[in-house]
Amino acid sequence: MADQTYDYDVLVIGAGPGGYVAAIRAAQLGLKTACAESRETLGGTCLNVGCIPSKAMLHASEYFEAAANGSMAKLGVEVTPKLNLDAMQGQRLDAVKQLTGGIEYLFKKNKVTWVKGLAKFQDAHTVDVGGQKVTAKNIVIATGSSVTPLPGVEVDNSKGVVVDSTGALELASVPKKMVVIGGGVIGLELGSVWRRLGSEVTVVEFLDQLLPGMDGEVRKEAAKLFKKQGMDLRLSTKVTGVTVKGKKATLTLEPSAGGASETLEADCVLVSIGRRPNTEGLGLEAIGLELNKRGQIETDHDFRTKVDGVWAIGDVIPGPMLAHKAEDEGIAVAENIAGQTGIVNHAVIPSVVYTMPEIAGVGLTEEQAKEAGHEVKVGKFPMLANSRAKTNHEPDGFVKVVADAKTDRVLGVWIIASVAGTMIAQAAQAMEFGATSEDIAYTCHAHPTHSEALKEAAMAVQGKPIHI
Ligand code: FAD
Ligand code: NAD
What we know:
15 helices; FAD/NAD(P)-binding domain; globular; 22 strands; binds nicotinamide-adenine-dinucleotide; alpha/beta; binds flavin-adenine dinucleotide; 3 domains; five-stranded parallel sheet; Enolase-like, domain 1; seven-stranded mixed sheet; 25% strand
């Protein structure tokens, strides 16, 4: 029963994967729920301009490249591809339309009220949403994140010369030369899309390796593979400025440690140096909620903020900025509000880079495990020795299992493989149940599957793989 003092039991601010899931779960648990969202469509960054549209372009461009680079010919399928970029963009928009429409359907089905507009706190139980006053006993902040700007570099997605990830999804033609600033997930995924479609792609990365946060061996192998695919990688290099003249950009680069600068010309520059939490204009000062040094909202284990009745989840709080992390927190926060026990195990959150091959990991890297004081044992197995990967002409990559040498408990799993994103789910589930490497090694895996490489890597922890 709704508390009559308020319009709603729960008001969620933001309808991304964190917010819309929290709202649906709260409603399922019998709470009178509303969700404030300022976008024209539900689904947040993920469904509108993130996970889904990027995967639509990655999937389509992967087919194009397979046809163009002889991979299909190797299988006896000879085709000469012709790019219809409008149609490719059309199927991206269609995927977004269907999935965002699907959330609207789920809101109706679960009786979640969508309050359209920008939300701003008046007090801890009152929010102004586009001029409308909405009160709720519990308010969940799920406002997500947006692109981190690079000082001195002006993004203008409408011109298509200096773009962020949203602009890079929507380019109307294939740029001849693209420079990606930031060798993280977005840079490598969207850089791959345009490279496959014909762009010469240079990635400028401040650090000495790509993909910060991933296992060291995986980062090195990834750099080797992206180079082999034709990406020009400029590691340990920073961009100090970008000037635009007409349809051309000129970038100034410098070694990260300082030194002589040089210039680089490009038809398109993608700025992808990270994302920052959305808290501006939310009126947090009205409720006395302060941000941490990284601009995030801190919560306790149950996703409660310091302000009574105000909760927070997703990209706006600390942790990896990932849709599935936000979703799980959405379920947990709703269950906690309903008086149940909602828990997210932040030690076991997989991450996947959807390039070809895919790159995935869960748990600790070898470096992190050692830093945490573990004596580690590592088992590795190359995809080249996996019968299915070899048969499918997908020999690149490996599986790496990091286990505790004393207890054999699996601490982390790192995979580069064509279907690493699918394979990592098994590793996450095993770790959630506290598996040892022996548990994975003695689990029967279907043959012939890429997943057998995980079994063999687990066997390799004890030094006993069969196929190498
Ligand atoms: P968001 O999805 O950002 O949603 C927040 C919503 O709140 C937005 O719709 C916003 O309009 C709304 N909002 C903000 N402030 C207000 C306000 N004051 N009033 C009303 N509404 C407000 N993650 C993955 O796990 N896998 C991927 O493959 C993946 N690919 C990505 C690709 C790209 C190009 C990008 C940019 C991101 C990608 N991500 C991916 C990250 C993923 O999109 C985010 O981690 C996820 O969307 C975070 O969910 P959220 O609910 O916290 O916030
Ligand atoms: P990121 O943090 O993954 O990578 C940013 C990179 O830019 C880092 O490697 C950093 O060292 C580099 N960098 C920072 N400043 C620089 C500078 N001045 N010059 C050169 N390099 C610089 O950030 P992103 O790629 O923008 O992605 C943002 C977030 O979106 C990520 O946190 C990620 O979790 C999420 N995302 C996830 C997926 C996925 O799960 N597949 C896909 C896309 C985005």
